[in-house]
Amino acid sequence: MSFPRYPEYKDSGIEWLGEVPAHWKVKRLRYVAELNPSKSEIRSLPEETRVSFIPMEAVGDDGSLVRGQTRALHHVIDGYTYVREGDVAVAKITPCFENGKAAMMRGLTNGVGLGTTELTVLRPRGPVTTSAYLFRIVTSEPFRWLGESHMYGAGGQKRVPDDFLRDFSIAWPSREEQAEISAFLDHETGKIDALIEEQRRLIELLKEKRQAVISHAVTKGLEPNVAMKDSGVEWLGEVPAHWEVHRLKYVSPEITVGIVVEPSKYYVDEGVPALRSVNVKPGGVSRDNLVFISLESNDLHSKSKIYSGDLVAVRSGQPGTTGVVPEDLDGCNCIDLIIIRKPDRGSEWFLSWYLGSDSAIRQFSEGSGGAIQQHFNIGTASNLLIAWPPFDEQFRIVQFIEREATRLDRLIDEAEQAMSLLSERKSALISAAVTGKIDVRGWSVGAESEEPELAMVAEESAGYSTQGGAA
Questions:
Q1: DSSP state of 170
Q2: CB burial of residue 36 (10 Å; 0-12, 13-18, 19+)
Q3: Residue 131: helix, strand or coil by DSSP?
Q4: Which residues contact residue 139 at a Cβ distance below 8 angstroms, ignoring those fewer than 6 apart?
Q5: N or C of the chain: less Cβ packing under 10 Å?
Q6: Are 352 and 214 spatial neighbours (Cβ–Cβ below 8 Å)?
Q7: Displacement of CA 376 from its chain's centroid (Å)
């Protein structure tokens, strides 16, 4: 169905908002909701009363709320933010605010919750608004855009001030019309969310398929009827009978490590690129966020120089993530990475794909230590077991994997783009409904919206600028 505009509009007096339905009333948020209600109303409760505990990770950017944690009231009443059943809580710190972290407080233990101080609490004033509609307002794009422009602080500590929320102005319909808009948005965004979830599941399946293709090709080869033999390694199983099984130290002429002792003291503004773990991607190298060391430092640390065709592997966090050094970075250096020199007899690209296989990942995991982050060293890397086919077969396997990985990556990209478009349409639909750009009065669950309508809504929402003015 196609949603019409309201029959009559008026100037809202707010630049970013423009015209609004004639019967809606422009009000500041402070007049429709109470901000950060006082804890005084719960101080009389028994101190052992169980209440919900709400850390930031319990609040989703999709409006979800994880309510699994509880605490005794006396442990959390001081030093945490108070919420009550029916309140709306919105994150105020970057990047949680920009990501839309907010939730309606529902199902709280004993109707009470205490949580992170990085939440701002809004309690709807009953005669004016409802929790459901208030939630839609504070998760709408205009609210987030304007809030972001009012943030104060530096870096990762930027926050939206309470004064922005108090003074945020928008037009409000009657409670009855709010209920209609909320019901419409619940239904329509629910359908979009279901489509997004389908794409998310598809992406997971495609990634699993990609990993399976790589793992099978580098451990079983491409010929379905080839004679097999036991590799002698539990997690590797059988390999083609004419393949060899070697430790990595017999495949690569040298395995060493990048600069590990106070590497930052060698950093300069311009000089020789030095790769870090952030630059290593499966199969390749990213040039984003490069650091540089001087030419003298590069010569000083000649052992950690890397050359075209060498492999560099991440040591911590996701050990085993491996990339091949490209020609344009020949002779540069690296920081705290395992360096695997280009194989004397074989393909560096085959080795790179193998190191991303399930067999190698298992070995990386079992050979890694560290209480907080997995971490592996030269010894672990040197003793990694590799299934090693003849060079001409390595070449054919690499060609096959590159072809299949490219095809699957394209499908993954398409699914991610579909998810992005659906998310944009969802945001646009919410914004159009709460700003009165479409009239959903009289809508019923049996009515079905159409793609052209979502496209129209997305186009209209593009009329807002991130600075809050007309684009």
A1: E
A2: middle
A3: helix
A4: 63, 90, 100, 102, 430
A5: C
A6: no
A7: 26
Average the pLDDT over 234-258 and give the result. Answer: 93
Global pTM value: 0.80
User: From residue 452, how far is each of 3, 87, 345, 459 by CA, in Å?
Assistant: 11, 35, 58, 10
Contact (CB, 8 A) for 149 and 468: yes
Three-point CA angle 180, 437, 176, nearest 5° = 20
Q: How far apart are CA 431 and CA 220, in angstroms?
A: 53
> Which of the four pLDDT bands, split at 50, 70 and 90, describes residue 366?
confident
As beta bridge partners, residue 246 has: 386
Which amino acid is it at 215? S
Q: Where are the beta strands (DSSP E) in 38-179?
A: 50-54, 70-72, 81-84, 88-91, 102-104, 112-115, 119-124, 169-172
* Helix (H) / strand (E) containing 208: helix 175-220
- Give the residue from 243, 270, 269 showing the smallest Cα distance to 389: 243
Indicate the pLDDT class of residue 464, thresholds 50, 70 and 90.
very low
Q: How far is CA 141 from CA 333, 388, 393, in A?
A: 44, 54, 54
Report whether 343 contacts 390 (CB < 8 A).
no
d(CA 353, CA 406): 13
For residue 78, the SS3 value is: coil
Contacts 24+ apart (CB under 8 A), 430-433: 430/136, 430/139, 430/140, 430/141, 430/185, 430/189, 431/140, 431/141, 431/142, 431/457, 431/461, 431/464, 432/457, 432/460, 432/461, 433/136, 433/181, 433/184, 433/185
**Distance separating alpha carbons of residues 198 and 128, to the nearest angstrom:** 37
Q: Which domains does the chain have, with CATH numbers?
A: 1-11+175-209+393-471 (no CATH), 25-172 (3.90.220.20), 222-388 (3.90.220.20)
Q: Do 452 and 2 touch, CB atoms closer than 8 A?
A: yes
> Can you give the pLDDT at residue 369?
46
**Cβ atoms within 10 A of the Cβ of 422, count?**
20
Cis bond before residue 4 (omega within 30° of 0): no
Residues 173 and 162: beta-carbon distance below 8 Å? no
Helix axes 391-434, 141-149, angle to 10 degrees: 100
With vertex at residue 296, the alpha carbon angle to CA 295 and CA 300, rounded to the nearest 5 degrees, is 120
Determine what percent of the chain falls in helix, strand and coil, rounding each to the nearest 5. Answer: 40, 20, 40
